[in-house]
Amino acid sequence: MRIGIFGGDTTTRTIDEIVSDARETEAMGFDSYWLPQIFGFDAITLLAVIGREVPRIEFGTAVVPTFPRHPGMLAQQALTTAAATSGRFVLGIGLSHQVVVEMLWGLSYDKPARHMKEYLAILMPLLQDGNVSYAGETLTNHAPATVADRQACPVMIAALAPRMLALAGGVADGTITWMTGVETLGSYIVPNINAAAETAGRPTPRVGASLPVCITNDPDAARASAAEEFAVYGTLPSYRAMLDREGAAGPADVALVGDEATVGKAIQSLADAGVTDFVGADFGDRASRTRTRQFMQTLV
After folding, report:
1. Where in the chain are the domains?
2. Average pLDDT over residues 135-150
3. Distances from the Cα of 244 to the Cαs of 177, 179, 184, 186, 247, in angstroms?
4. N or C: which end of the chain has fewer CB within 10 A?
5. Torsions phi, psi of 176, nearest 5?
6. Is the predicted pLDDT of residue 152 greater than 90, yes or no?
7. pLDDT tens digits along 165-216
8. pLDDT for 25-84, tens place per residue?
9. What are the C-alpha distances in Å from 66 to residues 92, 97, 121, 191?
10. What CATH topology corresponds to 1-158?
11. Measured between alpha carbons, how far is residue 186 from residues 192, 205, 232, 272, 273 in Å?
12. Distance from first CA to last CA of the chain, Å, rounded?
């Protein structure tokens, strides 16, 4: 199982600070470095900048919402960053959430699975060979995405519902999850996405799992901190459904918290469940974050 670092929200850090974090991640031997697309820097653009300065590891978005960006334009952005990073870029995309799409952006969230199916029908061919002519119910594209230095750009979907998992395995290259516990990954996510890939005759997909992680001697305090810091994810329907499936009251219950032996066992259980990429989101005070990354480094 590959071990990566989730770089976290970009709203409170400068570009130089984020480049430094990615450079340290690479120096410690981690396999990958991921950034979200929330309300800070544009993640794809930022990873193109980072990739020119940090030459070895893989970079990924977790995840870029699809509704605000036409798939033709997103393909051009992704191909640009893939070229800038010499083929070390993974495009993670997702639907976001109804409250964000409708209340903050004023867009329609109608039939999200249909939206993703049509989105991929345009995006995947453009990434692969640069051409597609497609007219769906809500999305159309007849324009090419032509770049001189076309690099492979895998696409991973934030897929939790059955229809989304079918797309992640049958059309895209895998899934990247957040706040999804090991039991749900092993009994639901992995079997469904692998079955979709097999049915479609595609390679075994990547399954990324991103979870909060904190090495500490005071797990109760760390879980209390996680409950506060990540509270919003317990209220969003897609994450709430996965927490309920896991039997978790909230995000603190799926966070990986404890000493090195405890967290190490939890990470191994993810690998045993079929996760191919663990992306750790370290949290807590500075000492805990340092201790967490130093321990995760031993697993690479």
Report:
1. 1-158
2. 96
3. 15, 11, 10, 15, 5
4. C
5. -125, 120
6. no
7. 999 999 999 999 999 999 999 999 999 999 999 999 999 999 999 999 999 9
8. 999 999 999 999 999 999 999 999 999 999 999 999 999 999 999 999 999 999 999 999
9. 10, 11, 13, 25
10. TIM Barrel (3.20.20)
11. 10, 14, 25, 8, 4
12. 8
∠ CA 26-32-34, nearest 5°, is: 110
Euclidean distance between CA atoms 235 and 106, whole angstroms? 20
Q: Are 91 and 35 in contact (CB under 8 A)?
A: no
For residue 142, the cross-strand partners are none
The β-bridge partners of 277 are 2, 208
Centre a 10 Å sphere on the Cβ of residue 291 and count the other Cβ atoms it contains: 19
The pair of structure tokens assigned to 242 is 């996965």
Tokens 């697309």 belong to 37
